[in-house]
User: What shape does this take?
Amino acid sequence: MTSKEVLFKSLVAEHQEMVINTCYRFVFNREDAEDLAQDVFVEVFRSLEQFREESKLSTWIYRIAVTKSLDHLRRIKRVKRFGTLKRMIGVEDPSAELPSPVCENPAEALAESERATILQDALNRLPDSQKAAFLLSKQDGFSNQEIADILKTTVSAVESLIHRAKKNLHDRLYSYYQNH
Assistant: This one.
């Protein structure tokens, strides 16, 4: 095994769970998060020699994870728009035929699913920069300085992004629950 392969193996062991969790915070789907984590580590392996140590290695890895997650969300939005267009012109959506998952307590499963959907929708409506800063802060526990390094911005910009994200989420969720 080459030294690059040994280093890579230790990087995966050290950062894999955090990368998967970071991706999951964006996509809310474990399989997609695991697939994205694989993509992240493929990119890390390919680009390891170009890492310039301008930031911590972990920050660089998480920056790749955030970028891959946001790219994934953009692709999904494009696919959804295309699916809507297909339905408008009369082409059926095969995913509509898939059975729903079975759960032990259907009422609890439905309530939890509805809450998750409402929150996911509110998060998805945030601008990408606000969503990234908010999730990195509140879900992953990064400091504002670490988030600034990951997003390649300033600490004050991160503080502003998080503040606006919280305000937007509050407004959207308050409005939703006020009307329902």
About this structure: Residues 88-102 have pLDDT under 50 and may be disordered.
